[in-house]
Design brief:
three-stranded antiparallel beta sheet; alpha/beta; TIM Barrel; 17% strand; 387 residues; binds iron/sulfur cluster; 15 helices; 3 domains; 34% helix
Length: 387
């Protein structure tokens, strides 16, 4: 089955949607399908639901039976429609359907690879860099990525709801005048109601030294139906930026394109973070297709992340050498706006380190010898006083 075709052709899409709805004992109704709350109520979470959705492999069957205690499983009907039911190597499927390999612990695997717990100053508020903080808004997502760097927290029931933490968060931010940038992130802040989001953003925005507020969200990919004019109005009111999360061009369906249009037309700046994943996007053409598809819907590819060494993700991670090869295959080979920064979040809390192929061949006597995208070398000569 070609998922691109299925998503684009309304007749084929309708047939698959009907099959999906029937798993829940309903028939396809476009109005219900386009209601994000219906999508959330009809997520695939149980092994028997996946049995009806896909031709499962032994590894997936074992994964579904054994991993849910370690990390939640959920897939929205929207995202489920993009999965090839017959292909275990489907790049959409690899992102959200657990496999037995998740139970393996490899060398270097960590539960908190970014060292966020160490920098938590108030429950759910991480302050590592001097001028910016991360606020974990809630602990649920529309669907669960099998490589989630916060799997130790997400859907584990350990994070109090934000209303109970908000006074302490605001008090900390008011007292720390060096903080100018707040990132609300996963769990997914766009799953909050408009009223709750308005209240949270309003209280953060009322702090005079907070200049910049970002939200990290995979909702436009997992649940584009959530992007409504009412939600966009709240985001616009508080002048936020959005960091989205897409891993494969097949995620940019007509519904996703409409959601991104609504956001872009509402004046919300959009960037995308992509996690480099084995068997999902680890070849140049696949990545190129993704970054081009993102530009078409006015989303700027921002970061390409080396997959964090979270316990149980070895089967989804690539080598750093592969990442360098891929980013070298993009830089200079396509529009500069389409090229994300390839970074490794240094394990243990070292922060993001940009990685790229060696572009300076030598630098001596005031002359830098540069290697360009085609492998040719060129000299840049410093002004005389630096020679
Ligand atoms: S959307 Fe983000 S926080 Fe949620 S499961 Fe995926 S990576 Fe984790």
């Amino acid at each position: 089955m070609n998922e691109n075709t299925a998503a684009a052709d309304p007749l084929i899409a309708g047939a698959r949607r009907d099959e999906i709805c029937r798993i829940f004992g309903e028939s396809y109704d476009p109005a219900r399908w386009n209601d994000w709350r219906w999508q959330m109520r009809h997520r695939f979470i149980k092994p028997e639901q996946f049995e009806k959705l896909l031709r499962l492999t032994t590894s997936e069957r074992r994964g579904l039976a054994m991993t849910h205690e370690k990390f939640a499983v959920a897939v929205t009907p929207h995202f489920a429609e993009l999965i090839d039911p017959d292909d275990p190597d489907c790049p959409i499927r690899r992102q959200v359907v657990p496999r037995e390999e998740e139970l393996l612990v490899g060398p270097g695997d960590m539960t908190d690879p970014c060292g966020e717990d160490h920098d938590e100053v108030v429950p759910g508020l991480v302050h590592r860099y001097p001028d910016r903080v991360l606020l974990l808004a809630l602990d649920t997502c529309a669907a669960y990525c099998r490589y989630c760097t916060r799997s130790r927290l997400v859907n584990q029931g350990e994070l109090d709801p934000l209303p109970r933490r908000l006074d302490a968060v605001v008090a900390y931010l008011e007292a720390h005048t060096e903080v100018r940038d707040v990132l609300l992130s996963g769990g997914d802040p766009l799953l909050m109601s408009e009223d709750r989001l308005d209240e949270v953003l309003g209280r953060i925005r009322a702090i005079p030294h907070i200049e910049f507020v970002r939200l990290g969200s995979r909702v436009p990919s997992f649940l584009p139906q959530r992007i409504t004019p009412e939600l966009v109005a709240v985001l616009r009111k508080h002048r936020v930026w959005l960091s989205l999360h897409f891993c494969h061009a097949r995620e940019i369906t007509p519904d996703v394109a409409r959601a991104c249009d609504l956001l872009a037309d509402g004046g919300i700046p959009l960037g995308s973070q992509t996690v480099l994943l084995k068997g999902v996007n680890d070849d140049v053409q696949t990545l190129k297709d993704l970054v081009h598809a993102l530009l078409k819907v006015r989303v700027r590819p921002y970061y390409l992340y080396q997959c964090d060494p979270v316990v149980g993700t070895g089967h989804l991670r690539t080598s750093v050498a592969k990442g360098i090869e891929l980013i070298s295959g993009l830089r200079g080979h396509t529009t500069g706006y389409a090229v994300p920064t390839y970074v490794i979040d240094a394990p243990g809390g070292g922060g993001k380190v940009p990685i790229q192929a060696e572009t300076i061949v030598s630098y001596e006597n005031g002359q830098a010898l540069l290697r360009n995208w085609a492998g040719r070398t060129y000299a840049y000569v410093d002004p005389a006083e630096h020679a």
